[in-house]
């Protein structure tokens, strides 16, 4: 068995199937490495226009907390890993994940999230994180 580490494995969550696969794999790696696992959702810019309504910061946070809760429930059901924490942050997802990667041993992402162009081999957030993260990045193909 590996010695426990305090350096977390970070996984970006947006509610997509791709991010669910990333969470599944990140959980297996965290268990094998005896490392903490943090699932993070980035609520984006609080001035984003959503469904033709200006969404405030608290509404964005609440929406992303629901996305995280649904994703964790869909992936783990009742068997949630004991060392899993969930966090909602504000800001552009790529920028926030890159900043958070400074204190992570690994960043795990889905290949493509909810946005982006169909047919793209790598989403913009994954591409930016692969290019600029401060730790190794594992991109999970779904």
Automatic annotation (TrEMBL):
Limits of the UspA domain: 7-141
Presence of keyword Nucleotide-binding: yes
Domain of life where this protein originates: Bacteria
Coiled coil: none
GO molecular function, one term: ATP binding
UniProt keywords, alphabetically: ATP-binding, Nucleotide-binding
Pfam families documented for this protein: Usp
Similarity field: Belongs to the universal stress protein A family.
Protein name: Universal stress protein UspA
Natural source organism: Kocuria rosea subsp. polaris
């Amino acid at each position: 068995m590996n010695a426990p580490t305090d350096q977390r494995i970070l996984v970006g969550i947006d509610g997509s199937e791709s991010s669910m696969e990333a969470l599944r794999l990140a959980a297996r790696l965290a268990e094998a490495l005896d490392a903490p696992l943090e699932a993070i959702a980035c609520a984006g810019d609080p001035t984003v226009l959503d469904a033709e309504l200006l969404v405030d910061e608290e509404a964005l946070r609440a929406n992303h907390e629901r996305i995280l809760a649904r994703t964790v429930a869909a992936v783990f059901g009742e068997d949630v890993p004991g060392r899993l924490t969930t966090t909602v942050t504000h800001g552009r997802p790529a920028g926030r994940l890159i900043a958070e990667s400074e204190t992570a041993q690994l960043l795990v992402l889905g290949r493509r999230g909810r946005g982006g162009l169909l047919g793209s081999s790598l989403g913009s957030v994954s591409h930016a994180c692969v290019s600029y993260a401060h730790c190794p990045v594992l991109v999970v193909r779904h």
